[in-house]
Design goal:
By secondary structure, the protein is mostly helical. The chain folds into two domains: about 1-45, no CATH class; about 50-124. It is about 80% helix and about 0% strand. The chain has helices at about 1-10, 20-45, 55-75, 80-120. The longest helix is centred in the last third of the chain and has 40 residues, at about 80-120.
Length: about 120
Amino acid sequence: MTYYLTKGYLASLGGLDSSGAGSSGIALWGVLAFFFGAPLGLLGNLAQVPGTGGLFFRLLVPLVAFYETSMRLETESRGPSQVVLGTWTTVRFTAVAVAVALVGHTVWGWWRSRRIRSAGVGVG
């Protein structure tokens, strides 16, 4: 909703294309939020599963961000705006960095717990 309000405000200033789709966009996103809110909440809950069990669900946000900005980059980079190109490139870089950090954190936790278990086996 904030996206469309900001887009409508910038369009009124002449900064963006003012196609008049702002209010219909808000309604569409409101309906989508109503129908997809619970399933996406479930995915968020599954992302809290520790270890590799929740890794896929934790990676969904950076993967979707990378994919969406890649699609937008192809379309919007043809325009004259270097700000758009820089923004999408930054988002893509950040999404990859977050994905690598999530995988690294999961691997580190798995390795550390495995090491602790193997060290505790001989003690007794």
